[in-house]
């Protein structure tokens, strides 16, 4: 369990995290989302005592991180996969970490196997690819068999097999009753991995809800194909209708039943009537529209 109360961090005039409250319970994967600069990493750093809050507090398993007696057994953390001495081998890095908690060599071998690093375990970390570095970071987080896992962008740089492996691993760890907090900018991955989402923007919580609820709050379209699009549009006053690239109509603000009934009353044939649920990406972009600090230009808007 991770609990934040009024958690606040300022850097000079900038409020990176602005009095946020949340509870992350065990037994589920909680996704942590937000635009660049929203305050995700700062929050994660405060959870594990790397940054000191200016106000408020955050507790892991009921204690501030600094008071945990055996932190590696309590919290596994992957914040920056590159934060490893490049001259050390993966195995030496893990053995050094293990020594701080009297974790046996056997466990080091186990996490090396678990993360698929057997063939490179005796190679220097400086020569690792991004994906191999991520696997090593996950191995380090798992070393103490912790009850809480905090992973910042763990699938960054992993190949599709690695991405799927992380997804299954995190789901499995949550099903064992552990607390899993995961940040990622990959919406499709988040939709498949997380049960619950906390979305932040400009240091504030914008949503704290199950994934289905966040996706459901986005726009749902009804896609309609008809040989008489103008007549159908006229038969649906007040319904917002756009025309898709393939000529189908995309209606918002009416159910498929309302559209089908209106078409039947007006004698308009329909060749397709489909509900298109919004994606997490759509819902996320809607939610964070006013909280994006580093927005991009629309494609075609610049030369
Ligand atoms: N050490 C620091 N000194 C000054 N400002 C900082 C520092 N760390 C973070 N910030 C600022 O705090 C804000 C939040 O940054 P943070 O890294 O927590 O965002 P984030 O949500 O993790 O972003 P990203 O998705 O880009 O990783 C940003 O405006 C950032 O510039």
TrEMBL record:
Keywords: ATP-binding, Nucleotide-binding, Transport. SUPFAM superfamilies: P-loop containing nucleoside triphosphate hydrolases (SSF52540). InterPro entries: AAA+_ATPase (IPR003593), ABC_transporter-like_ATP-bd (IPR003439), P-loop_NTPase (IPR027417). GO terms for molecular function: ATP binding; ATP hydrolysis activity. Pfam families: ABC_tran (PF00005). Residues 2-227 form the ABC transporter domain. The keyword ATP-binding applies. Belongs to the ABC transporter superfamily. This is ABC-2 type transport system ATP-binding protein. It comes from Diaminobutyricimonas aerilata. The lineage of its organism: Bacteria, Bacillati, Actinomycetota, Actinomycetes, Micrococcales.
């Amino acid at each position: 369990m991770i609990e934040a109360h009024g958690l606040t961090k300022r850097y000079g005039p900038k409020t990176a995290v602005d009095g946020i409250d949340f509870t992350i319970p065990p037994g589920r994967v909680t996704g942590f989302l937000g635009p660049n600069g929203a305050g995700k990493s700062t929050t994660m750093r405060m959870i594990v005592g790397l940054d000191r809050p200016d106000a408020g507090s955050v507790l892991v398993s009921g204690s501030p991180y600094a008071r945990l007696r055996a932190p590696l057994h309590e919290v596994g953390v992957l914040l920056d996969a590159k934060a490893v001495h490049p001259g050390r081998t993966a195995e030496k890095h893990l053995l050094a970490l293990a020594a701080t908690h009297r974790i046996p060599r056997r466990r080091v071998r186990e996490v090396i196997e678990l993360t698929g690093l057997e063939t490179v375990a005796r190679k220097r970390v400086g020569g690792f690819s991004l994906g191999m570095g991520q696997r090593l970071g996950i191995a380090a987080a798992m070393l103490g068999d912790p009850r809480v896992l905090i992973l910042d962008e763990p699938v960054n740089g992993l190949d599709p097999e690695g991405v799927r492996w992380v997804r299954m691993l995190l789901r499995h760890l949550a099903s064992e009753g552990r607390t899993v907090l995961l940040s990622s900018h990959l919406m499709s991955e988040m939709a498949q991995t997380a049960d619950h989402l906390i979305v932040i923007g400009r240091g504030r919580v914008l949503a704290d809800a199950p994934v289905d609820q966040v996706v459901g709050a986005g726009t749902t379209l009804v896609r309609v194909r008809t040989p008489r699009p103008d007549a159908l549009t006229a038969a649906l006053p007040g319904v917002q209708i756009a025309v898709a690239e393939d000529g189908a109509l995309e209606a918002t603000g009416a159910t498929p039943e309302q559209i089908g009934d209106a078409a039947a009353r007006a004698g308009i044939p329909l060749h397709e009537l489909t509900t298109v649920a919004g994606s997490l990406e759509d819902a996320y972009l809607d939610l964070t529209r006013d909280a994006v600090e580093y927005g991009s230009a629309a494609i075609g808007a610049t030369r």
